[in-house]
Amino acid sequence: MLDISVAYNRYKFLGNEFLTWLWFMIETNQHQLRRYDPDLVSLNIGSRLVLENTRNKAKETIIIKGEDANLEEGLLALKKGAVVTEIHLSYKAGAHHWQFSLKGESLNISKLKLPETGPVETPEDLEGAVIEKTYLIETVIGLVNNLFSHFVKLRVSDEWRNQTVSRIRKWASS
């Protein structure tokens, strides 16, 4: 069995590849994402995208910020071998809207903004509010788990090597 720090350092690239694949899927294949969440209305890049390129011994970090940020610089970085290390997402399912960030090396969810919930007017409403907030948090965790699970299955398949990598490269070059 691998020591936890050895496993972390050996496989942390998977999270960055996952975020890169997720950006590709968001831009090119939204309808396929609905297979992993039938309630999905949209999943979009939010206000922040961080990429890193470590190919030439020197670490280059590219940060793209802003609500209407131009992602062309990110695509250029992908062409040069960068991967996404952090992504801010806007997720809509049903009538609800979430915003959150994902870090590639750990898949930690941060900056989670939940949909509006009803006001707590009486002490009896408190339990329902807690249950509702828990459900809303679990929804985002479930989305990330479903997407990552699919990504890992794809990543270890022949389809990754034979088709997906070339499609991502073609998309980044377009």
Structural class comes to alpha+beta
Q: How much beta, percentage-wise?
A: 25-35%
In terms of quaternary structure, the protein is single chain
Q: Could you say which overall geometry the principal axes of the C-alpha atoms support?
A: globular
Helix fraction by DSSP (H/I, runs of at least 4) = 40-55%
Q: Radius of gyration, Cα only, in angstroms?
A: 18 Å
How many strand elements? 5
Number of domains: 1
The major β-sheet equals: 5 strands, antiparallel
- Average pLDDT, rounded to a whole number, is 91
Q: In what order do the strands lie side by side in the largest sheet? A: 2-1-3-4-5
Residue windows where pLDDT falls under 50 for at least 5 positions: none
Q: Helices and strands, in N-to-C order?
A: HHHEEHEEEHH
Alpha-carbon distance between the termini?
A: 43 Å
Total helices: the number is: 6
